[in-house]
Design a protein that fits this description.
The complex is a heterodimer of chains A (272) and B (611). By secondary structure, chain A is of the alpha+beta class. Chain A folds into 2 domains: 111 residues; 126 residues, Cupredoxins -  blue copper proteins (Immunoglobulin-like, Sandwich). In chain A, a hairpin with a 4-residue loop joins strand 6 and strand 7. The longest helix of chain A is centred in the N-terminal third of the chain and has 34 residues. Chain A is elongated. Chain B folds into 2 domains: 237 residues, Cytochrome C Oxidase, Chain A (Up-down Bundle); 274 residues, Cytochrome C Oxidase, Chain A, CATH 1.20.210.10. The chains are: A alpha+beta (272), B mainly alpha (611). At the A-B interface, helix 1, helix 2, helix 3, strand 7 and strand 9 of A face helix 4, helix 9, helix 11, helix 12 and helix 13 of B.
Chain lengths: 272, 611
Amino acid sequence: MRYWHLVFAFAAVFVVGTSAYSPFAADWWLPGGPGPDYTHSVSTFGKKIDSLYILILIITGVVFIGTQIALVWATYKFADTGPNRVAQYFHGSQRLEVIWTIIPAAILVFIALYQMGTWSDIKFRTAAPRVQPIAEITARQFQWVMRYAGADGKLNTPDDVQLVNDLHFVKDRPALIYLKSGDVQHSFFLPQMRIKQDAVPGLTIPVWFDADRSGHYELVCAELCGWGHYKMRGNVTVHDTQVQYDDWMTSEIRKQSQDQLVSAPATGSSGN
Amino acid sequence: MSTEHTANGHGNGHGPVAADHGHDDHIHPAPTNFLKKYVFSEDHKVIGIQFLFSGLIFFVVGGLLALAIRWQLAWPWSPIPILSQALWSEQGYRMPPEFYNKLFTMHGSVMIFFVIIPLLTGAFGNYLIPLMIGARDMAFPKLNMFSYWFMWPAFIMMTYSFQVGATDFGWTAYPSGTVFHEASPGSQTGQTLWLGGLLFAGISSLMGSINYITTIIMLRAPGMKMFRMPMTVWAMFITALLQAFALPVLTSALAMQLLDRTVGTNFFVPANWSVGNGPVRVGGGQTLLWQHLFWFYSHPAVYIMILPAMGVVSDVISTFSRKPLFGYKPMVFAIAAIAGLGFIVWGHHMFQSGMNPALGATFMLSTMMIALPSAIKVFNWLGTMWGGKIQFTAAMLNAMAFVSMFIIGGLSGIFMAATPVDMHIHDTYFIVAHIHYVLFGGSTFGIFAAIYYWFPKMFGRMMDERLGKIHFFFSFIFFNGTFFLMHIIGMHGHPRRIADPTVYEYLRTTGTLAMNQFMTINALLLGATQLIFAFNFLYSLVAGPKAPNNPWNANSLEWTIESPPPHYNFATLPHVYHAAYEFSLPNADKDFLPQTEPRPLESEPLDPVMA
């Protein structure tokens, strides 16, 4: 009866404790944990997003701890301990109302304005990198159909290469794709690059991202798209250099022409 | 509104408040026929209890669906006790993936449309509004009866849809998956039944909200000025306004999707579109249109699900802190601000949807600002407890849990309001954590508080306080164990609505797997804890000790009459002298002052801004 404040304190400690521990867990890589590998987000935007996340975590963490301490303290201090305890009779304080309206309002406006630039850099179409798109990606139940620009570096030419669930791009270079849906809604999600964009039936949406470290990553479908949604997974390969990417592309082109026995040799007309 | 009154106590001369057709003169006799008394009743109290029982039954259904979801996430494809034997003995006891989609779709639909909204507005709105404002019934008793019975076609359609293959495209029902029958097994008859069911549930809510608004405006007892109404009534009033203005939009959207599915209109079908090798439809519509229309209702719906609980919690905390509510009027304005801003934040569900990102930035700003009135409410609740004399009843503990957990649910909202951070956590378990901290940590603890608090009034018997506290203790612990780690795996990128996280390498790690299992074990224990509540509720219903009129020494009008209240509630209409929060007046002989008793002459006038 007298110890109810401990229950509320326990919940708060659990919340703070698990949050503080999680970046140190063995398989943790978000956001910016201290482990040797996968220690940070691998993209430029990802780092901005992570630092914003940490900023908000600090602000909300302070508010959380403060309000929980107030709650636990009030629960302990003002418990009904017998007839001697008398509740105070007051209806509020204008001064306090003003204070706790203005300060949170200022903090919220600050957060809102502070992150506006990051958002526009990542999503506003005017911020799209001035590069040729590497691929047009069409999400279908339950696969990612990727149509690469091929040897000429241009989309919608006869030398386009079509692959499934296999995204390739080059390190330290902005990669631009056009995202489409072939049937229902899907969502293009690169967790390690913190990029997410829904693929919407009837729309073509440009998406851009980069990575500062080569390797293998994963592409996730983040929007429910039917019974096979959970397995709509794609492989992501980030190449170290453009040469490696071109080699890979050449081998894919060769494979495609062998597989399909179509007479679509790399024209190379653009000399790219 | 006229506040002058004569002292004859006969409801005359009170301006527009209650002078209409001489309530005192003709109290309708109670119906004697069983059907009219208990089934097709026009009595707001019976209708409220009907909503309460059907809501609690569907709470069990929705909860069991949730446990099956959790089982699959912790131990993917392993046989689920009972369910696997019953349904999939021929498929090696494995749950088919589309069944998993049905589980979370129906869990969300049932919990939102059949449990939380009907329990808060249907059950407690109906039961409490007339009692707390001193009216004898709702303004439109027959409409009130219809509002309950319109839920039944919805109950039947949704329940029956399990038989024919329930819908599996999420409770948000995004096209084009829901419009094209070929998109998934649940997009056939199941989706049509879902749309039909929601139409009925929506019409039921609309009828209820019109009734609440009219009743609160027209039928307040003499002296019950708007700014003397308990917070519960204020919250119900503002919720009803939200429903009245937002629901027509959802209703039209549901009708449009139904037409798209049945007669071949193309509101949500893009040009020349086909799904799953089905026939090509001429199209010309927009799938994003659905999202706008759906969220124009469904974001306010989140507030429809939390505002009444905020009202309840305000009343419960003030009563059991034996202290006036801190900042009564700011609390009312905060609720009104949440409701107002609630209409211009729907786009935050669509930050990654392909909607113009510049529009996203404006929705981000309004979403940030809606955190402000929520914060003000939290500070006021803490201020109410501060300096009080806190009595730890089961109702109070649940109300405090609301405050404590709503802080988490509110603060996590700031992460997703920040559009860049939302890019990463959108459609992950972070969102699932947030919604459950608001709707379970908030609304459901609020519902528990309301049940513990008003059960004696509703049924004339007391619930067992000891069992109530045990139920609270384990619910609170296991609730946090179930839902908090969802934030962490969500930030780790764990998508929601996937049947098997181990498909992904980055989720096939010991930490994520262990956390999923930990959450599932807590969810099972959380479910088991509710058996204590069920036992307490049912046992107290028949064998609880008789409840006095005012077991909690509270001030609002419902506690001035017998438990349970007689037919037509008030033999003579009460006269109200002040708001319901006059606790612990100095130099008074008791620590509460019912609204029907004037404040002592020597006491100082109330603060016009705060009280």
